[in-house]
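User: Hey, quick favor. My workstation is busy. Could you predict this chain's structure for me?
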Amino acid sequence: MPVSANSASYGWALAPWIGLAALALVLMALVAVGRRVPGAGAITFAGLAAVFAALFPAAASAPMNAGILLRVDRFALFFLGLALAAAAAVVLLSGRYVRRVGGRSEEYYILLVLATLGAGVLVAATHFVSFLLGLELLSVALYALISYPRTRLVAIEAALKYLVLAAVSSAFLLLGMAFVYARTGTLAFEGLARLAGASALPGSERAFDAAAFAGTALILVGIGFKLGIVPFHMWTADVYQGAPAPVTGFISSVSKGAVVALLVRLGGAIQLGPEDPIWQALAGSAGLSIIAGTLLALHQANLKRLLAYSSIAHLGFALVAFLAGGQAGIEAVSFYLVAYVTTILAAFGVITALSDRRACDREAIDDYRGLGRTHPFLAAVLAFALLSLAGIPLTAGFIGKFLVFTSGIGATMWLLVFLVAAFSGIGIYYYLRVVVALYLRAPAPAVAAPRPSLEESGEAGGAAGASGPRTAPGERVRAPGPAVFPPAAAALAALTVLLVLFGLAPQLVLRLLALP
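Assistant: No problem, here it is.
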């Protein structure tokens, strides 16, 4: 092939990553020229849409290796597209929220784009250098995003907790990489083929290698921290609760989705099997994540903490599909991530829409009682999202859990399959508890005064906030809630349609997942 043609193909293959970096630079330049950038959110959304469009010419040039650091193939482009779509949804949801809680919003969008770029590098990484660069770019941006509302002490606390634990996980990763490099002489993922002496290299013998085993174990410990799976889940609930609602949605969708995609690529390199100790450790972590996440969510009175603990269980479900391996396992974990990202963004989108006029996020489940009467649209979106998380039929979540279940059966992982079935049923309880609360009449507390509702805070508009209807001692009357920010309403409507559409026509996603 001529050099010019090859260079052009190479450029098109990397166009989405180059476009994300360029978008961040453009936003930085605009802020440098004028401190306030009118329409920073619109510019960010348009830029993300342009980068998403660049995925199509990139797919025509794939598969292609970008040196030794990145591989641009359909797998990487699929997950990059998922990250871009999720980031665009977060931008739409954040518009009014970030202006009210964070003041100036320009830096928020710069950080969001940089975090998305870090996630994009992760899904295409084939080398520990690109792995570490992408992970740190994502993590450092998240530190600032979590603490973006500088006046919220709970946000600062959450950012510090995430910073400390992320630093610890990075230390584990670096030490593990050093062990692997010492034993294999390479930082490419293929070096991990000597995991516990089980090598995928031609002519190699199966012999236990303590250094390679320790290095791989340390790397997976670091990844476990990033995913928040048991026993590395201690940060999840506090960070989910303390972070701003749209940032929590970004962490639970883009950040965790990118790390799972990286884990799938790593799994293809090291070719784990049920006889390997690392596979068995991951299986144990998956089972404990399903059990602990479900049980911890049962008695939560805070919606953000409930979603945090349930995310631990959902990552356990995804690990089951990952451990099943093969094409069926890859398709199962990929579809499950699509369903989970769509659903969790819808859930946190409702929290964002209801919190964009408050000094703190609306997160107590009691705050959502009667929402079906005051805000039917938001109540319906949240109900659909919770039903999808519960795995109710005709939703994307049901298809995702079904694929996980069938992939586990195909790999004869009977204990994990039983845990998926049993704890999916138990999990329905805490999701339906919130759905029921959305459409129930909320009695006033018997003793202490209730937390101020929307109309009591003056958020329902002038007269309603100043002289709202008086309530009887045993009854709380809610005035209609404030209008939803139009871009946020559009994003929520699109997410709801998608989670139902993927449940009714899963082949729309499964065709894309027929990865070569």
